[in-house]
Amino acid sequence: MKLSLRLQQIDSMVSREYDHIWDCCCDHGFLGLNLLKRQAAQTVHFVDIVPDLLKQIEAKLNSEFARKLQLNAWHVHCMDAADLPVELYSKDVLKDKHLVIIAGVGGELLIELIQSLIKRFAAYQVEFLLCPVHHNYKVRQFLIEQKLGLINESLICENNRYYEVLHVAAGAPQSVSNVGSIMWDFNNKKHINYLDKTIKHYQRIAKSPAHSNTAAVIEQYQSLYQS
């Protein structure tokens, strides 16, 4: 199965060596299967709370085609992503590198998941590759509050929808920006369109008395035009 543009972008941002990659909310497992095929980690974990989806993925992984490709370094976990058993797969807490991928969920749920994982695995070598569906500004604020640094970020347009992808980790040297930094390419009309749409979205919100604090958000996005 060919990856969607969004999943292709996420896949391309997995460029480091990892001991374990956790593909959370993995849906049909297309991303994890591609990461497994190209040996992006010693072990790829498929995580979802929907048993039927995981049965389908497990059948693919146990197929004759998969065995011929020697795709055997995997585990399937039917659980909430907040409960990842990272500690069970870390022989050396300081050395074993984990990448947790969470994509295709709303920003508020993503924040809840990351908050839980950070508390549990503060001592582990864990990075996060995140692609929220909504509330990007709120997600970025949360990452800044949690003192997670930026490794990489990108902006992708697929089927007239825009997605921000953030690769972050504790100790990463670059700061996360509320409105994005290295993801912008203002020679790309789609990026300009996304910025325009985002500003208009917050301008509409600002008309409500309950959201009078959005003026600062609008100003931050508008400042990108001068950057």
Describe the structure.
The mean pLDDT is 92. Strands 3-2-1-4-5-7-6 form a seven-stranded mixed β-sheet, with helices on both faces. The protein is built from eight helices and seven strands, in the order H-E-H-E-H-H-E-E-H-E-H-E-E-H-H. It is α/β, with parallel strands linked by helices and 227 residues long. The chain has two domains: 5-183, Vaccinia Virus protein VP39 (Rossmann fold), CATH 3.40.50.150; 184-227. Helix content is 36%, strand content 24%.
- What is the number of helical segments per DSSP (H or I, 4+ residues)? 8
What number of domains? 2
- CATH class placement of the largest domain: Alpha Beta
Summarize model confidence as the mean pLDDT. 92
What fold name stands as the CATH topology of the largest domain? Rossmann fold
Named at the architecture level, the CATH assignment of the largest domain is 3-Layer(aba) Sandwich
- Radius of gyration, in angstroms, nearest whole number: 18 Å
Question: How is the main sheet built?
Answer: 7 strands, mixed
H and E order: HEHEHHEEHEHEEHH
Binned strand content: 15-25%
**The named CATH superfamily of the largest domain:** Vaccinia Virus protein VP39
Specify the overall morphology.
globular
C-alpha end-to-end distance:
40 Å
> Helix proportion of residues, in percent?
25-40%
Strand order of the largest sheet: 3-2-1-4-5-7-6
Identify low-pLDDT runs.
none
Structural class: alpha/beta
Number of strands: 7
